[in-house]
Structure formats: C-alpha cells, structure tokens
Amino acid sequence: MGKKKDEEDSDNKFGEPAQFDPNFRGLIQKRGCTDIICCVLFFAVILGYIVVGILAWLYGDPRHILYPKNSTGSFCGSGENKYARHQNVHMKDFVTSHFAFSSLSETGQTCSTLTFSNVPHVQPNSGLWCIFCSHVFKIKVIDELFQTVRQIVDQELCPFFYIPTTPGRRTFKYCVFLKLSLTFSSRVSIRDIVKGFNAKEIGVRIFEDFATSWPWILIGLLIAMLVSLLFLLLLRFIAPVMVWLLIIGVLGAGAYGIYHCYWEYDKHKKNSATITDLGFTTNFNSYLQVQETWLAFLIILSIVEAILLLMLIFLRNRIRIAIALIQESSKAVGHIMSALLFPLITFALLLVCVAYWGTTALYLATSGNPIYKVVALNSTNGDCKNVNGTVDCDPTVKCPSASCIFIKYNNEGLFQRNLFNLQIYNAVAFLWCVNFVIALGQCTLAGAFASYYWAFNKPADIPYFPVCGAFIRSLRYHVGSLAFGALILTLVQIIRIILEYIDSKLNSAENGLARCIMCCLKCCFWCLEKFVKFINRNAYIMVAIYGKNFCVSAKNAFSLLMRNVLRVVVLDKVTDLLLFFGKLLVVGGVGVLSFFFFSGRIRIDQSTFHSENLNYYWMPIITVVFGSYLIAHGFFSVYNMCVDTLFLCFLEDLERNDGSEQKPYFMSKNLMNILNKSNKTPKTGSKKK
Fold first, then answer.
1. pLDDT tens digits along 254-279
2. pLDDT in tens, 301-342
3. Model-level pTM?
4. H/E element holding 402?
5. Which of 14, 245, 387, 488 could be stapled to 562 by a disulfide with Cβ–Cβ 3.0 to 4.6 Å?
6. CA-CA distance, 605 to 628, in Å (whole number)?
7. At 100, is the secondary structure helix, strand, or coil?
8. How far apart (Å, rounded) are the C-alpha atoms in residues 400 and 185?
9. β-pair type (402-409, 388-392)
10. What is the number of alpha carbons within 13 Å of residue 498 lying toward its C-beta?
11. Backbone angles phi, psi at 6, to 5 degrees
C-alpha cells in the first residue's frame, strides 16, 4: 500500500499519467509544422551564413596563409612565378657572387643592412645584372630609356633589394646587383632550410606507409564494422548473460578489494606510525605503510559494496526490465537494418558544416592586405628609440636591430571593420548547424524505432522504409522544433566557451577565490549542458511520435521520465555499461589484431604486404584503432537511441493501456512476463510476436 501511495504522489507531482486514446495507434500521421518562428529564424541565420561565406570568399585570400610569396609578390608555383618550382636556380650566384643589399625581413628575422650610396646612380650597363624583375623588363630597354638604376626602381620594373628566405616565408621585392665588391656577414641560411627536411621526410615516410598498407587498414575497419554489427545483433541472446556477468564482476572486484584492504591492514598492525605522525607529504607510498590508511579504504569499500548489494536486491526486477528492453532493441535493429547506415548521412552533414566553417573562417581571417611595420628588437640603441612599430617597412632604417614584422590585415572598409563580429557569427552559426544536424539524426532514428514499437503485429505492421519516412517527416514538419532545441544547447555551449576563455586569462592570476568561482561555474555549466542534451534527446523522441512542438514535447518527456525515475536510472546505467563493454571489445580486439599484423607477428602467406617495409608500423595501428572507435561509436549511438526510444514508448504503453481488449499492450511478451501482465483478449486475427 505504501509503495502504491508513493507512486500516486509521484504521479501527481509530475503530472497525470497518459490517458487512453482510442485513436492512438503509434506515430501520429496527421501533423502540422511546429515552432514556425524558430524555423524562420533558423533559415534566416542560414541565409545570413551563406551571405557571410560569399563575402568572405570575395574579400579573402587564404593563399596569404597557405602559400609563401616570392620577391615579386607572386605566390610560389602560380601565375608568373614559374621559377618557384626550381628553388636552387640562383643558389650559385647567392653563395659565390659579391652583391650588396639592404633589407628588412618580413619573416621576423633581422638581416644585415649595408649602405650603398653610389648604387642608385650607377648606370645599368656598368656591370650590373638584375634578376627577378618585371616580366616586361629587358636589358636593351634599359639601355635605351633609363640612365640610372634609381629610375628603374622608381618605375617598379625591378625589385629594390633582395632578402634571403627559407621556403614557406614571404619576402619583399628585391634586386641583386652583381659584380659589386662588397662583403657581408650574413649569407643564405642553408641551415634553416635543412631544419625543415626532417619534418618533411617524416611526413613522406608516413605517406609511404599509408600508400603501402591502406588495403589492410580498410580490412581492419571492415572487421570493426562486422564485429560491431555482430555484437548488436547477438545482444538479444547474450544480453542477460553479459549484464549479470558484469554485475557479478563488479561485486567480485569490490569483494577482492575488501579482502586486500583487510590483509594490508592486518600486515601493518605492528607498525606504530600513524597519519598524524606523517603529517602532509607528497609521497603517497608513505601513507600506504600506515594501518589507518588501509582501515579507511576497508570501510569505504565495505560501504560501497553494501550499497551495491542492496541496490541489486531491491532493483533486480528493474534490471530485468532493462535487459528485456535491450533485447527488444536488438530485435528492432535487426528489423530496421537501414538505421545502421543513417549515421553516415549525419557524419557527411557534419563534415559539410565543419568544412564550411573552416573555409569561411580562413577567408575572413585573410580579408584585406597584410600590414607590416618596422619594430626594434633592441630599443636601447640610440638609433632605435624612434622605431615604435608605426612606420612602414623601409630598408633605409638605421636601427641595427630593426625588423619588419606582420602586424595585421588592414581594416579599411565596412567589411574589414566588422571581421571580428563576422567571425563570432560564423562560430555561433556553426554550433547551431552542428547541433541541428545531430538533432535531425536523433529525431529520424526515434521516428523509425517508434514505428517498430507501436506496430501491434511485428514485423508485419512495420511501415515500409521507416527511416526514410521519419527523415522526411522531420524535415517537413519539425525543423523549427529541432532548431529550437539546438539553439538552447548552442547558447549553453557558447557560455562554456566564454568561461573557458576567461579561465585561460586567469591562469596566471594569484586570486584563489576567482579561480575557485570559475571552476564552480565551469562545473555547473558542464552539468547543465549534459542535462540539456538529455532533455533534448527525449524531447525529440516525443516530437517524432506525437508531432507536438518542442516545449510541450520536452515537458511531457520530462514528466514521464520523472514518474519512472528509478527505471530511468537503472536502464541508463545498464545500457552505458553494455555499450562501454561493446566499444572496449571492438576497439580493443581490432587494435590488438592490427598490432600483431602490422608489427609482423602475424604473417599472411602469398601476400605482397611485408610489415618490415613499413617506416612506422604504429601509424596504421593508430589509424585502425581510431577508425574502429568511430565505427563502433556510430553503430552504438544508433543502438542507444533505439533503447531510449523503446523505453519511452514502453512507459507510455504502461500508462495508456491495461491489457484489455479495448486497450491492449504493444510491448513484447517477454516484457509482459517480467511485469506479470498480459493481453486478456487479443485482437481478432492478431498475434503477438
């Protein structure tokens, strides 16, 4: 009586149970568009996002970041910069010839500065040779039209000076004047060039390993897919055994821990030292030599073990229900195999979002022309006091420690002045789109698996193409609801990002109170994000079934779950335990197999692949392990969504129906047997599967 009264009080606190509806037969077919305002707002943001991307594409040029420029201002390997493909063409002249130059490096390095007051007035035919000049420059034209080198430079037909650079860095325009007998202390930094060879060589070797082993990597990923699929399909048969083995394993580990703590406690009885005698020390092993430490461990483990035993005794029936739902989920996946392929669509849409965000951010970051200023690396020198980073780069600066560095991209124009705001818009729209894609996948899978549960005769009453039907319904009617839930989650994530940014600024702060408050805020919003994800997930299930708006669906889902909170906790933990074990089985098993194969411990006769030819055998192993985890996560996320959907349908079924002829249960016979329920008079011509 007490238990029944508590359940009634709980029902009243979290709303009345769902009432029987004679017209309800599972998924609502006649539905309308939900959360239209949020739908319009979402499409407006998407339209604005497209406009931002177009503007970024028009004004930005990622080649400023991705590719180096040569002395003529051309990007290496493109346009008129044909000689960039032959990096050593003029190396002989650079090393053996005498030449004069005055330079400030854009790379941040300080190059030697030499004065040559007579050079600007030297005639072109006086033993000078200009290389890397304008493509319209001809020596015979110089002889006919120009009297001095100064006139050539003023007409921008020839670069003014030369800067030695390494690949991947930019330089100013330069001109090399050969046959002028001047000495200098700095030459081309060959050593800096050689430094880059090691990383490049490693990259080439890794690429060679992938080129050699990619068929076997694909085979490893295929094995991971087959093992994941086999594990999910076999759960209908092995779920009870696995769950009880895991529970017994946890209890057994706790019992062994109690025994070991008692054994250590008894062993250190003769030791007279106490924790008080030790005080505070960073040597943890010192505490393990004290009897009181093992006594504390013994008490804690005993309490935890007792709690687990009591939970097992009082929740055994709910554990059986959780196992039955897991088995039923395995059957549902077996009947709707196309659901296992749907994560590929979600993954492809996420890739599109990430690619668009990254491309837009890159183009926005490179909008405008780069601005370089002269700065003094050593301002104590008398000639460097006036060098304050406000003067454009000039090779005649007298400061010996002067360097020309990149400051920023110019902000002239309305678009350039709002680049920061556009980057914020890019980030917010990206988070919203990503969360919407995930919500779309969850709602689609929920609709497909709900159609399985509410089919009275399984599998005869399951609609054709349930995944496609659920996907179309979600896009046709519920874009607004999905965008609403995604927006709430996005706002929480933005707050978390802001907190992370503030925390990074407070890392050097000595204020312990501020650090403590920041840590508490981060923890609270982390929990809030998890809670919002949980509510959204169940709200999307209710949206897929009943076609109501997001707020109503979230309220109904939360009330339904709170009326069955113990079942929720048990099912959630049992499912998490099983899926964790499944991921461990797939990733660990395939990882060990790939280790033995790529390290040469397993050999295949008549195979063209030889592990000893690999430069780094661990790279294919890491690739297989990471890919196996993604595959297992994709399969198990579908399964987890199936469990959650069937669980909500099961709770609704219990509240709506009573097993009579007018209100028969839709659940499987296995679930009805566990609950001691049955359909008293089955429908004519119907037979429960």
1. 888 888 888 888 877 766 666 665 56
2. 899 889 888 888 887 888 888 888 888 888 888 888 888 888
3. 0.71
4. strand 402-409
5. 14
6. 25
7. strand
8. 13
9. unpaired
10. 10
11. -60, -40
